[in-house]
């Protein structure tokens, strides 16, 4: 899969290790930074990743900050993006299966490196189940357009 990954300073170290893992798993991965632990603003990276996914330049995106929350709030401002914070195997699977999340938001200060790897892999390999969930995802898209559901 073609992926795009970004983090702020809080997620930098985990991002580096996740990049290695995802590439070893056979994915093509674009790294938009940050590239060191100097303090940065997470919305900048959420914008780069979210726009690339919305424009089809990458199939899916992964964002890491301290909690995953700031990245998720920011990336969901971009039309076409369904960003999801996950914190367990179950939420990682359901974010793909039910919500068709195309950006995963992870917290380096609340999850271990191993958890972040596990949740990312699970999310990447889980397919959208469609059916009633497609109807719901379409309603989210209608909200983005500001129209009636
Ligand atoms: C940065 O200190 C921190 O606020 C950020 O990494 C993230 O946790 C925000 O949601």
Which properties best describe this structure?
149 residues, alpha/beta, Ribose 5-phosphate Isomerase B, Chain: A, five-stranded parallel β-sheet
Name of the CATH first level = Alpha Beta
CATH superfamily: Sugar-phosphate isomerase, RpiB/LacA/LacB
The low-pLDDT segments are: none
Number of helices: 6
- Distance linking N and C termini: 32 Å
Estimate what percentage of residues fall within beta strands: 15-25%
Under the CATH scheme, which architecture would be assigned?
3-Layer(aba) Sandwich
CATH topology: the name is Ribose 5-phosphate Isomerase B, Chain: A
| Largest sheet composition | 5 strands, parallel
Write structural notes for this entry:
This protein has 149 residues and is of the alpha/beta class. Helices cover 46% and strands 16% of the residues. The protein has helices spanning 12-24, 42-54, 69-75, 89-97, 113-125, 132-144; strands spanning 2-7, 28-31, 60-65, 83-85, 103-107. It has a five-stranded parallel beta sheet with strand order 2-1-3-5-4, sandwiched between helices. Helix 4 (89-97) links the parallel strand 4 and strand 5 (103-107). It binds D-ribose.
Describe the structure concisely for a colleague.
The chain has 6 helices and 5 strands, in the order βαβαβαβαβαα. With 149 residues, the protein is an alpha/beta fold.
Describe how the helices and strands are arranged.
Elements lengths: L1 E6 L4 H13 L3 E4 L10 H13 L5 E6 L3 H7 L7 E3 L3 H9 L5 E5 L5 H13 L6 H13 L5
Parallel strand pairs: 1-2, 1-3, 3-5, 4-5
Helix pairs in contact: 1-5, 2-3, 4-5
The structure holds D-ribose (RB5).
D-ribose binds next to helix 3.
């Amino acid at each position: 899969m073609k992926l795009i990954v970004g983090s702020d300073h809080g997620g930098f170290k985990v991002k580096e290790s996740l990049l290695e893992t995802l590439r070893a798993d056979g994915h093509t991965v674009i790294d938009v930074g940050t590239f060191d632990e100097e303090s940065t603003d997470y919305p900048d990276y959420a914008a780069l990743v979210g726009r690339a996914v919305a424009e089809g330049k990458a199939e899916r995106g992964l964002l890491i900050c301290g909690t995953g929350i700031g990245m998720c709030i920011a990336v969901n401002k971009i039309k076409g993006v369904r960003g999801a914070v996950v914190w367990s195997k179950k939420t990682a699977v359901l974010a793909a299966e039910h919500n068709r999340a195309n950006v995963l938001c992870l917290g380096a200060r609340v999850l271990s490196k191993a958890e972040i790897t596990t949740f990312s892999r699970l999310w990447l390999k889980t397919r959208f189940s469609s059916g009633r969930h497609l109807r719901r995802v379409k309603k989210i898209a209608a909200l983005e357009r500001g129209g009636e559901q």
